[in-house]
Amino acid sequence: MSQPVQWGIIGSGAIAKAFTTALTQTDAGELVAVGSRAKASAKKFLDENNAGRGTAHGSYEDLLADGNVQAVYISTPHPFHAAWAIRAIEAGKAVLCEKPLAVHHAHAMAMINEAAERRVFFMEAFMYRCHPQTIKLVELIRSDAIGEVHLVQASFGFQAGFNPDSRVFNNDLAGGGILDVGCYPVSFARLVAGAVDGKRFADPVDGTGSAVFAPTGVDARAVGTLRFANGVLAEVATSVTTNLENKVRIFGDKGHIEVPNPWTHDRTSGGAFELHVRRKGAEPETVMVTTDRTAYAYEIEVVARALAAGELQAEAPAMDWADSLGNIQTLDRWRRAVGLVYEQEKPERLTTPAHGRPLKRSSNAPMKHASIDGVKQPVSRLIMGCDNQMTHTHAAAMFDAYFERGGNTFDTAYLYGGGKQERLLGWWLKARGVRDQAVVIGKGAHTPYCTPQGITDQLNETLDRLGVDHLDIYMMHRDNLEVPVGEFIDVLNEHHKAGRIGVFGGSNWSIERFEQANAYAREQGKQPMTVLSNNFSLARMVDPVWVGCIAASDPESRAWHENTQTPNLAWSSQARGFFTGRADVPAEEQSDKDLVRCWYSDDNMQRRERAIELAKKYGVLPINIAAAYVLCQPFPSFALFGPRALEEMRTSLPALDVELSPDELAWLNLETADVPV
């Protein structure tokens, strides 16, 4: 083992004491500082648990500023995990954060994204995952010890006297069993289900649950069922009002395993742990695992090995980032099933981003912008598609991150989510107070409501949903060839004159109809259409993604855009995942049939291979080359992108720094054979 990791602790409760004890059982780390809200409390903790050694800090900020601290152990109640983990990562400290990682997936995603962006080690502290007993159990599952695994039963519950102000019952502290200790059975079931397939973990494809609530609105006791794609089922149970068995049983077609002490509770020493294996036709077997230190000490050693190796994530079976995200998503699913929403998750309480500070654009934000005539604000080159945010917490995490990285342009539509997406965007704009700094694109009049009256009806409802008095850019979502273009221009001008819309144009409009509309506008002395939003991508759209879709990737359309300098807001700019590893799967094995239908072709596969080759030259991902192809056109070209997770946003942004030459653009599009120098 190399030099011991220098630890600082944020939070000084019982778990912090157990962690400090564990530091004395291994040479992999030592405690050098404690942060508390009062310096006296930090000093008392050091006196009682570390023989007075180390620096006592009277604030968490002071601890993070301590140059002697290499790694931070966060042991506060979970509602405070996100803010302090992110701030620790910003300070360049490695972070071990107690379970559950956060109250909900959105905050966990923000924490992990920050670690990935800044390349800082980060790990969720499920100490039992680092224990030799867990490692041995995984070996048994993978060695077919009980055959094909069918069912996991796991419980963790205790009886606490009801106190509305205590951590386990306090709604403001996200109390209740599911998050406090139900996270253990869930993580164990996911571990076993993954081990069945030789993987680190598996995420359930379905889940249900029931709960009884305490007077404070948190779950007093709850049960859940999980179903995994490989056929494994799991029954999980938790409680803060009832002592449960706190065991795990794993049933297979050749026997079962019982784990009497899965959570390795002893916080002061090691011990002997038993795995009871009962196989059909064989005598019961007890597999012994003997340790000389606590699970926390093994956890400390896992972190130390990762830091010594320069790794950002932990070794198996400790939880890596994807495992932690899957676990909190499963806990979210369980809470949805029982109807548990904490007060702090309600829209009116979501007042700041995950880091807990007011929303603010970063001084070194990576986003780039360009002007569109008639739009007051510069427009982000990568435009945030608002079509897949399903909750206020998720929308806030995505929009906050986009804005703080310099993004200011949001694309939504009347039909997205039956209006939910517009309501979420409108809520966020108001909650963050950034309407005047944002460019809002709205789309309406989709088939079969593509009529002048449809424009008016849907626009009024869109403005109401968003809670704004105008859209900066308005796009007709489709064209209707049965309606004379003049009728559309007339109604669009009415709304433009009334101040309800700024510039306007058409999405999935042909160039011919666009020119006809503008010829009419010129004749009548009216405002013309000034922007299009058609599909534009390095990959040719083989078959329309949806009925009525129009692409502008062909040479004639590109030449027209270059000649007229008409801006295009390109949707499916990265061909909906075609330039990621998803398209490595042959057509006959591909589960995403739309990906095959719309993008699989010999010429597109060639373009994809060239994007992969050019990505190596620029040190980026192939999707970045695909996006850069859109952004580097000789006309105003903007890329709509719809990240569903912060990872997708983070990995899309490097496209902004790729400047493709005309020769590279032509080569990517198969117009030349020679690789550009």
UniProtKB/TrEMBL annotation:
<dbReference type="Pfam" id="PF00248">
    <property type="entry name" value="Aldo_ket_red"/>
</dbReference>
<feature type="domain" description="NADP-dependent oxidoreductase">
    <location>
        <begin position="388"/>
        <end position="666"/>
    </location>
</feature>
<protein>
    <submittedName>
        <fullName>Aldo/keto reductase</fullName>
    </submittedName>
</protein>
<dbReference type="Pfam" id="PF22725">
    <property type="entry name" value="GFO_IDH_MocA_C3"/>
</dbReference>
<dbReference type="InterPro" id="IPR036812">
    <property type="entry name" value="NAD(P)_OxRdtase_dom_sf"/>
</dbReference>
<comment type="similarity">
    <text>Belongs to the Gfo/Idh/MocA family.</text>
</comment>
<feature type="domain" description="GFO/IDH/MocA-like oxidoreductase">
    <location>
        <begin position="136"/>
        <end position="258"/>
    </location>
</feature>
<keyword id="KW-0560">Oxidoreductase</keyword>
<dbReference type="Pfam" id="PF01408">
    <property type="entry name" value="GFO_IDH_MocA"/>
</dbReference>
<dbReference type="InterPro" id="IPR055170">
    <property type="entry name" value="GFO_IDH_MocA-like_dom"/>
</dbReference>
<dbReference type="InterPro" id="IPR050984">
    <property type="entry name" value="Gfo/Idh/MocA_domain"/>
</dbReference>
<feature type="domain" description="Gfo/Idh/MocA-like oxidoreductase N-terminal">
    <location>
        <begin position="6"/>
        <end position="124"/>
    </location>
</feature>
<dbReference type="InterPro" id="IPR036291">
    <property type="entry name" value="NAD(P)-bd_dom_sf"/>
</dbReference>
<feature type="region of interest" description="Disordered">
    <location>
        <begin position="351"/>
        <end position="370"/>
    </location>
</feature>
<dbReference type="InterPro" id="IPR000683">
    <property type="entry name" value="Gfo/Idh/MocA-like_OxRdtase_N"/>
</dbReference>
<dbReference type="InterPro" id="IPR023210">
    <property type="entry name" value="NADP_OxRdtase_dom"/>
</dbReference>
